[in-house]
Amino acid sequence: MKVLHVETGRHLYGGAQQVVYLLRGLQSRGIANILACPRGSDIARAARDLAEVREMWVGGDLDLTLVARLGRLIDRVRPDLIHLHSRNGADLMGGLAGRWRGCPVVLSRRVDNPEPRWLVTRKYRLYDRVVAISDAIGQVLLAEGLPPAKLRVVRSAVELSPDLPQGTRAEIAARLGLDEQASWLGVVAQLIPRKGHRYLIEALPGLLAAHPRLQVVFFGQGASERQLREQVEAARLTAPVRFVGFRDDLAECLPWLDLLVHPATMEGLGVALLQTAAAGVPIVASQVGGIPEVVRDGHNGFLVRPADPAALGAACRRLLDDPALRRQMGLAGRELIRRHFSTDRMVAGNLAVYEELAPRSDENPTVSAG
């Protein structure tokens, strides 16, 4: 089977990283992968050994010329099906290109923000299957009118490292500019409004009153960075707060956090939450979207009302006050990932969707999605 994957994200954030996991798993199962992606993108480099990478110019949501470029690529590589992994116009343009070439099209839906019912009715006709990465996203799609026969749920995944942590706390402290003896609270998310950083900043004065040596690390970058820095400065919190940007060594940093906070107001599932749970770190997060599928309240973390700094602060204090509870929840998170969010399970789930549309003629058995 030959699959054309389309991923238009330029950075190796959560969704693009899922594509890398999928390409690796599919390759090991004998699937021929072709990846269409932006020129010079991070995923182009990461996927070199996993797929035939076709870099191309990609515009925004209204880049109608992408239909023609993808159409020409489909004519050249003649895939058995197309898997569209991202939005940024690629969902609509890729759907049109595939439909006009008579090629089956699978769309991954990674976000839970609602779309107008009229748009769902029209746009989703282009796709033979829609893969939601969480039950919550699936419910949003059904509520908007997606035919149930088209929907499949295949949760995102993360690789579970057997060796945690790597390096030493002193090394990570030096890299991030942190006090080795302090408690470390992290946020791993794009710096954009719906990730809710501002609510944690509002909760920090109360947290610092109880834990004066607490330090906060914002991993990620985005359009809201200037506004968030101004909020931190206005609250006189520049000493305990660090903005460290997007980091290639995130996997090494995560296990040393005492706590991860994810105060998002909307979230499809949250790959950063999967990474954090796999790293054995407890989580405080908003009870929205697909987050409760990863953060089980009272099991591997706490869930709070969205946009509620007081509730957020109280949950953080409960974990910061109790090292034994943090360790217990951290271990529970790793076990949750092992059981329900493995990359093998995710790859098998997507492959099962492919085989509904383009059955393989080889004799190799397909692993059940479970």
TrEMBL record:
This is Glycosyltransferase family 4 protein. Transmembrane segments: none annotated. The keyword GTP-binding does not apply. PANTHER family: BLL3647 PROTEIN, GLYCOSYLTRANSFERASE. Keywords: Glycosyltransferase, Transferase. Its EC number is 2.4.-.-. InterPro entries: Glyco_trans_1, Glyco_trans_4-like_N. It is an enzyme of class 2 (transferase). It comes from Thioalkalicoccus limnaeus. The keyword Cell inner membrane does not apply. CDD domains: GT4_PimA-like. SUPFAM superfamilies: UDP-Glycosyltransferase/glycogen phosphorylase. Pfam families: Glyco_transf_4, Glycos_transf_1. Residues 14-160 form the Glycosyltransferase subfamily 4-like N-terminal domain. It comes from the Bacteria. GO terms for molecular function: glycosyltransferase activity. Residues 170-335 form the Glycosyl transferase family domain.
